[in-house]
Structure formats: C-alpha cells, structure tokens
C-alpha cells in the first residue's frame, strides 16, 4: 500500500481513449455505488458507479464480474503499474456530476476483514476542467502543477482520509482499480 498518494503517469490521449471506449461500450448502466446496502450516511452515496468487478471485502467472494468487458483496460493498468492482470481485485468507475461529492473517509475493513491490507489501489482521472477538489494525504490536490489529477494515473493511499467535490461545470469520471499484492 502506498504510504502517500503519488502520480505514476500522465496518460496520453490514446491511453485515455482506450479506457474511455471500453467504459462507454460496456453496455453497463451507471448506478448506486453500494450494491448490497443502502446506507444513508455512506461516503460514496453521492455520484454513481459502474463496476468492473466487485468483491466482498470480508470474504472476497465475487458480487459483480464484468472483467471481460474491460480486458484491455485491466491489461493496460496492470502493465503501467507493474501488476498482473489476473490479480485485479475490486474495481469500478465513479462519476461525480457538478455539485456531487464523496464525503471524507478512509477505506478500511470491518471486523476481521483483511481486504485493504492485501491490495494496492490505483486511480485514473479522466480529463476534466478546473473545479474538481481532491484532498488526499492531508493535502489539497488538483490545484498545483505537481498535483494535477486530470489525465493522470496515481498510486493511491486508501488508508488515509480523503475527500472529493466536483465544483466544475462537467462530470468528473475516475477509475478505481485494486490489485492484490499481499494475499494472506
């Protein structure tokens, strides 16, 4: 797991078009982020998600599996990050419409779950206009040149508090992709 979030790569238009095309041609519908619960105060209750693969964080059972629709995306992200495509874990697209937010939270397991101890998380931010606010690792991102997120792949520190808000005039889409790196 990353101790601090860091930019790994600026993606070129061809890379961004490849993953956007798979997302757009998947035939899947954007929907509620939480698949088995409808919590009223959960941090990702705003916005919508489109799942590549959803795994139960406690027992790793498969909830949704659309990996075949995203094979090129998974292979590309695995290559860019030094992972194996077969180690892809929980992965999804998230969309924040103008005015949407993701409340401050950190990603941790409940009870005896070990999911978040076994993965490295990556995020890819599709190109967006100014006005998308991101706080990660106690720092404001997307304001200084060395922390701009648009069109970038980052290794993401999911264990620290983070928050997002879309104050722009357009949707902000980003891909969250976990890879198992330390299976217990």
What does the model show?
This protein is mainly beta and 184 residues long. It is built from two helices and eleven strands; from the N terminus they run E-H-E-E-H-E-E-E-E-E-E-E-E. It has helices spanning 13-24, 71-81, and strands at residues 6-10, 48-55, 62-65, 88-96, 101-105, 119-125, 132-136, 139-141, 152-156, 162-166, 172-180. The strands form two sheets. Strands 1-9-6-11-4-2-3 form a seven-stranded antiparallel beta sheet, with helices on one face. The longest helix has 12 residues, at 13-24. The model has no long low-confidence stretch (mean pLDDT 88).
How far the N terminus sits from the C terminus, by CA atoms, comes to 14 Å
Main beta-sheet strand count, sense and barrel state: 7 strands, antiparallel
What is the beta-strand fraction?
35-45%
- How many E strands? 11
Low-confidence regions:
none
Structural class: mainly beta
Question: Over all CA atoms, what is the radius of gyration?
Answer: 15 Å
What is the global morphology? globular
Q: What's the helical proportion of residues? A: 10-25%
**Number of DSSP helical runs:** 2
